[in-house]
Amino acid sequence: MMDLDTVKERAGPREFSPADDLPREYREAATRMIEFHANSEIMGAYLERPFIRQSPSIDRKLAFSAKVQDEIGHGQLLYRAAESLGVKTREEMLDDLANGDGKFLNCFHYPLKSWVEVPMISFFVDGAAMRRQATLRRTSWEPYAHAMDKVCFEEGFHVKHGEDILKELMTGSRKEQQLTQGAFEEWWPRIIQFFGPTDDKSTHHDFAASVGLKQQSNDDLRNAFLDQYIPKARKYGLKIPDEPRIRERDDGTYAVEEDDLDWDEFFTIAKNEYEPGLGQINGRKQAQEAVDWVCETIEADAATARGHEPQAAD
Amino acid sequence: MATPDFSEPEELTARERRALESLIKRLADDEFVLAERYTEWQVRAPTLESDLALANNAQDELGHARLWYDVLGDLGYTERELVYERDPAEFRHSTLVELPFEDGDWADAVLRSYLYDVAEELRLEALEDSSSPTIANRVAKIQQEEGYHREHAQNWVERLAEGESNGGEGHKRLQAALDRLFPHALTLFESCAPPRGANDANDASGDKPRAAGSDVEADIVDLGLRTATLEELGEEWLAIVVPYLESLGLDVPESGQTGDGEFEFEVTQEMLPDERGRDGTHTDAWADLYDDFTHTYRELGRSEPTKIMEIPE
């Protein structure tokens, strides 16, 4: 088995594949990271699904249904990349997610109540995700990097669609503009927290970075996001809230005042203990349990018929 | 009756327009409402793979609805009038497609899809040589996708029906779904009440009662818009679905089958549900569904649904 020092030495983009005999520490860290990512795709889709129906036109509905479908496809791809580390099966990960043990993005713990909130996810949060995912195309676990190629490609369309929804709302009636501004103020701090705590508060950062899983620090990603999205928000007529305070540096880039953000709430969410998020976890759990009978039926049959491990049905 | 030139919508008589409108609405409304129901399975299907498959079907059906509604665009209708601001009682879809799914009732989803997709294949065949070139042109594209839907549905129906393990749960649930859905599936072949307004275009007083649905349906066939009657389609449908379902050990409710194994489509009032969709009567579930899909449009006070894609010709 490769020792940890060798792993750290060799850690480069797409360096490791299932052919490598990697130490447990690496495989567990990679599993945790990819599982988190996969879970986030599923919970994001869960959150957005009602807006397929509530889309205000057939074209939007089509695009939104396709988007939700893409997220499920990303989840499928990512679970496969995680499974390839040999630590957990997809079923275990999905069960953990249902039981409240699986972790996922802070933004998907908040309820999504109205169409005006949709671009907060599909433009800002997806835009933030794009930034992070782009760097992960150089992650050291090859199957993860490979999954990112497809994910990044599709995510580009989602962000464009999200931007179009935002633009439409911000050029609509005054009521639409006001409601959208209100949603933005509510979501803005959460969006900034998407990138997680500052590097010195982040628990897993050092190891993940040292073995090439993570390619850029939380702080760098967040600042790059602010540099890109503050001008975009302003372009569509959104007013950046006074809090959290954001400093504009001399070179025109931005930095956020970390202490203005609610980190207690963030860490409550990270433990899956935030009330609305729990409701969403349990809602998805109920949906999963309601169809358990199907999987039990076909898996038992497949096992009897072939006398070996059941396969997933399509 | 002389065959009119349906490629010149401005030249059509009120009666011809009424026939075209009535035919398209039943097609488009079925696809639109079924798609709405299918999307309920997104992020809720038994596996990630079946989730993706059903999402595909939903988008296909939505795409078809858009193609059909667009035909009515030639008659001057907009999406606002056809969908987002249409009186819910003026929708003409069969009640089969509006019924809600019980949580986790995958047997309902795949059986409903099977019952619908067989009917859809038959009616598309009967539109291949439509006297309306706009309709005939759209059929081929739609047929391609529908074939796949039926295969997918059948695959699942068989898997559930033949599953012996888990106490025959799949079979039990399919039977329950069949008992519930079959009467509603029969409404697929009911004639439509003509749309309000389209009817009395020739009658300024507006006092005349609406033309009977059966008259408009007869016009649809006489004008060559569809080359088979609803009875013929219904018989073909029965001849396919009844033997198939029986071969899976399912009991088909009263279906109009005669003793010698031939199918006659003689649907009696007792075989049909109280609400039939085609005549403008709908279940309570439809009102809820309509409220939900028009929610944002109303909340934001929109007056025009957004177009973001061009319809391919």
UniProtKB/TrEMBL annotation, chain B:
GO terms for cellular component: cytosol. GO terms for biological process: phenylacetate catabolic process. Residues 194-213 are annotated as: Disordered. It comes from the Archaea. InterPro entries: Aromatic_CoA_ox/epox, Ferritin-like, Ferritin-like_SF, PaaA_PaaC, PaaC. Coiled coil: none annotated. PANTHER family: 1,2-PHENYLACETYL-COA EPOXIDASE, SUBUNIT C, PHENYLACETIC ACID DEGRADATION PROTEIN PAA. NCBIfam families: PA_CoA_Oxy3. This is Phenylacetate-CoA oxygenase subunit PaaI. The lineage of its organism: Archaea, Methanobacteriati, Methanobacteriota, Stenosarchaea group, Halobacteria.
